[in-house]
Amino acid sequence: MHSSTFTTTDSCPLSFLTSLPLPPSTPSTPAYATCILLLHGFSGSSAYFTRNLPTLSSTRWVVAPDLRGHGRSAHNPSRGGFHVSRLAADLRELILHLGRSTGVPGIRFVPVGCSIGAAVVWTYVELFGEEGMRGYVFVDQAPLQDRAVLGLGGEWGAGLAHAGCFDEKSMLAAQEGWVREERREGTYKGLVRECLGYRFKPEEGDGVGEEEAGRDEEFFTGISRGCDSVWLARLLADHTRYDHREACEGLKKPVLVMAGRRSGCFTLEGMSETVERARKGGNEDAEMVVFDSGHWLFYEEPERFNRELLEFVERCTK
């Protein structure tokens, strides 16, 4: 993987990994015709995909950005930017940058939005449309985190919303965990417990020993420690309020939802709403597949994730 950067229109340097060099060594090479965009989740980075990048990039061009305020990307605290819409604008600028850097017209993009990455893609489509998109993969994220009452897009209760951050009180408590230094380390570890299926809902036969579990915890907590936790807390307040249900009805390209059966974040019923809404909007090419792991299913079941993603990309870019 090659590490690269570009600067947004609000002067914020953003970092990303690309499996192919920019600019191309050979102009207009077919290898750049299709691009898989891997978008990580809240408090993560492109490093989340350490178990996916080698396989995916062996046959496809893969780009994995560090979202604003995450990983090696900056966040311009003096200008805000802690909004899902700003992250969607960043994605738009990245796509334009990739087009300019390659000189390849009509690149076919397949974004893979994991957790808040899914919210970024829904917002992107709502703001900028579907030009250049060939399909969407949404990984373990419901289209609304907060609970909602009947009449506001339809009733959205405890069986559909986020398990731990679903209203003003729970959001404020979550922010406290991120910004208070004495609680921060516990917040990092709590995130691991709810996002790894074998930690959230252990089952006989998981086969993960204490040493491996410790390495996993340090891997993910280390990535979270690299973020500005106060900035993340402000992003969280924006993210949890976004209601993407109607936006999902505007998805006209193929949709694949990947859901973790042992996710500590969302229920299968909540995540299936993306498929139902896409179908309501007339999209018959929308489906959900269920993994035996948790929120970070791409990490726990990388072989299946890689296989199903590549099959989806092949199908929607023929």
Automatic annotation (TrEMBL):
Q: Where is the AB hydrolase-1 domain?
A: 36-307
Q: Name one Pfam family in it.
A: Abhydrolase_6
What InterPro entries does the entry give? AB_hydrolase_1, AB_hydrolase_fold, AB_hydrolase_sf
Does the record carry Protein biosynthesis as a key word? no
Q: Where on the tree of life does the source sit, at the highest rank?
A: Eukaryota
What's an example of a GO molecular-function annotation for this chain?
hydrolase activity
Q: Name one GO cellular component term.
A: membrane
Keyword tRNA processing, does the record have it? no
Q: Which Gene3D superfamilies match?
A: alpha/beta hydrolase
Keywords per UniProt: Hydrolase
Report the protein name in the record.
Alpha/Beta hydrolase protein
UniProt source species: Staphylotrichum tortipilum
